[in-house]
What we know:
The protein is α+β, with helices and mostly antiparallel strands.
Amino acid sequence: MSTSIVKQIFSKGGRMLNHDPISVSTVWGKLAACGISKSEVVLKCDKRDDLGHTTIIMQDGLDIQELPAIVRKVKDVGLVCLYSSNIADTGGAKDEGNICSHAVNASQENDESSGQVPHVHNDAETTEIVEGFNRCFTAKEVFLLLETIPDDEVNPFVAFYALKKIIELENNHQYRNALVKSGEDMSENFTRTAVFNQLINTITLGTESHIILDALKVVCREMVGSSSSVYRDKLCDEILIRVTDGKFDVGQVCEIVRVLGSSMTAENRAENADKLWVGLVDKEKEITEKNIMEVFRILPFLTQSRKMVFGLLERRARYVWWRLPGNAIAEILSILFEVKMFSPRMMAILSSWTNTNIHTVSEDDLLEIVRGFYALDYVDPGITKSLERYVKAKSSKIKNAAMLATIMDYCGRFRLRSEPILKGCERYFIEHGQNLSPLLVKAMFAPFGILNFQPSDSVKFWHVLESILDEKFVQFRPDDAIDVMLTCVYLGKFPLNFVQKVFNPYFLDRLHSYRDVNVLRQMRSKLKLFDTAMTLECSQYRGPMLPRDHSAKSLWQDGRIHRMINCISEPLAKIIGGHDRITTSVLLPHLPTSSLYVIDIMLHPSGMGGSTIRFSLRREGSIYVAVLIHVPEHYCASSTQLIGPQVMRKRHFRRLGMKVVELQYDRLAKLRVHPKSLEEYLVEKLKSAEDAM
């Protein structure tokens, strides 16, 4: 009885009731009197009964991983959908009552099952209907217009356009405000819900897959209704089926992932977007240089299937990399950094592109490419050689100074003591240094000190730097100014003219304005290091300017050095005549509490080690020998040249009156299993110790 009442109330001669708030509220009152709730009347777009979800094990070479997939049920038998097939759509949408007048008739359903496109009388009629929608200024007018359209003319395109027009009108602020004032609750409006359900059903039953995708994008923008997730899920289920059937191309699959990723919660995104990997794997050969970037851009939206899709991109990139533009390479590096994925094979491909196209890439693209390699902590000989060729050919013609500064940052980060790059930067600095901002000055100048590279045209170079500091010192950030001062000291230059600008209340107030405790502590350590270096090396410096730090601190020591000290202590004791002549990990009391000033092994006369090392090294230091163990990070890359801080460290110990012995960690590691050869190496190094200065 209740069902017949519902049909009498909501359908009349195949036409929908007018969109009238008063009549709708009256209808709800009659339904309540009959004991019928809204949930029994409103047509729901529930998830398909023939669609399930599972997890499968996939093997790609040596890589095995679990991936989500969908299961289609055919006569109570589940079929895992992985690749496109000709499986018929046995589910479809349920017939839940003839509430809306524009239900798909039996002949149209037969056309759907046979794979034929439903017949449209002519394009002129469809165009006329669309123009009619465009003349509507409220959703109510769209509902009224739908009543006048014959059933067979409401094809998927018309349904999509009606859906789009309603959502556009409802998202209009004036329309929403007017309905709020009238007291109408749009999210609970029966007519609206019924129309939406029937339009969604018409769209999903059509054969035009691109219309379903467009409808999904429109529904994801819905701001008014409370059932948008229901409509979205209905469209998602249909899209999942069609993706596994190969109805969407690579670009459309990527667009679906982006739409779902930007409109769903993380949980729902994992439930739907991660199942779309099937549509990409099935069309792997269709991924070309024209659409490969679309696939890269969906990686941030994937979770479980990200690794599988990335493996696919690795394989396809080998065939198309040389056809990609520079901005695409920069974007790939940015995406890899965002998703925290590192692949030696992919990085080698990107390095090959850089090496091949270095002279055709634009400065802006090269800037982003170098930043990408820097962020991903990647360097190889191919990148180094390509940057050397570029700077050598274009150093004086470079227009974007930030690009050259980024290359210098890259060299400093990976200790690339490349003479062509450093000399090219030197020429550019001399010619254009006066026009550079303080940030760029620091970025270009600091690597010279880190890499211990003395400018060839030193007179002009230092004159330009001095004039820049004279004119722009107050514009430098405190940390950049301290780095510039330290770089000068690394290179054996002492900026006496700027000491008063550093050790003055204004500069120190700016320094202590940093709120990050770690950054502030690091800047204080650098400032103390600069003060100590000037005190030890510059006779005209009236220092130290800073008080001695008496606070207790723990110092980090490289574990490799610590283990090697234990390894060579015994042969050293045998050579010099006893363990009482050796003290390890010595930090002199009048030097800063810094790992840079830790003496790995100190050799001294018997009874003069340990806590008794409290003497004037300038008078008695000649009887002490500082043994320093250098790990690979103490050298420039692929070189035996020490980096600037280590050169200064050795110089300071010699200034204090000690002899210095340098041992290579790699050499010690090879000789530790050959005691006799190790002893011979130690004797040789002790004999060639550098004298005190």
